């Protein structure tokens, strides 16, 4: 009897294991795209950069330089508990408390940077394993129109015509076509994976994401954010973020192979999108609101000039630029790129 029960239990276990394996098909496909080998992607684990006292010193020194200048104090003025309490509106009582908080903020930002880097590595390989059957024409035209509008705004800021501006940055209309296709491909791949594994956000999650973006980009309200980017585009961004996180949870980590040449890896169209999305310095903000390290901007300039206590600026000042900016510039829709370019003027 015991042997019989044991046999039944083993049989159920095998069936259960087989059923679980069947939930993740090796290939996904719909009317627009086919994705193969999207799980078990092999990547190297991203290292979390160590946070040092020098990183904290950089933030403190920048904060003090602003404080000294605004209050016309001697250049050798040292930070004190009273200054910390004044600038933080009582949030921190001592210099020690403030430094400890900065160190924790920098650590958390660097953890997120490492996580984002891993998601980027997985996403690039998944994109290389995906093939577009056809592009939905209406959506492709919409993304292209958003890109044109974006560069028309840049041209106006430079007091140039659209054609003059595009010529000055050496971009042609065909470059925008390639960028639109690269962006839409990522959108289509995210959609087919999200539908298969129920990764689409609820309305509440979209609203929360919009609130988070509004705070990151210094919009005074979500309503103002929605004047720059639609709720549907916010939803698309959340879908892609959810898919990237899910894919990374189902990846495999491998040891670093120093013989590999990183230049040989293909981004399957993302280079074209990068050359379009990342050309103008006004657009060089990623989806987290941090300045692109390629812009040449001093990382300490991100610190809040009025208080120096801004948590995002503290981590930026430590040199923790976001590793997602290059990939996101291709993955976000054209209207998302428009928001990134315009947000600076909203936040200034």
UniProtKB/TrEMBL annotation:
GO molecular function, one term: peptidyl-prolyl cis-trans isomerase activity
Stretch list, region Disordered: 254-348
One GO BP annotation of this record: protein transport
Signal peptide (residue range): 1-19
Domain of life: Bacteria
Coiled-coil segments: 92-119
Residue spans of biased composition, Low complexity class: 286-322
Keyword field contains Isomerase: yes
Biased composition (Polar residues): 273-285, 330-348
Biased composition (Acidic residues): 255-268
This protein's UniProt keywords: Coiled coil, Isomerase, Rotamase, Signal
Residue span(s) of domain Trigger factor C-terminal: 94-243
Keyword Isomerase: yes
InterPro entries named in the record: Trigger_fac_C, Trigger_fac_C_sf, Trigger_fact/SurA_dom_sf
SUPFAM superfamilies from the UniProt entry: Triger factor/SurA peptide-binding domain-like
Protein name: Trigger factor protein (TF) C-terminus
Native source organism of the sequence: Hespellia stercorisuis DSM 15480
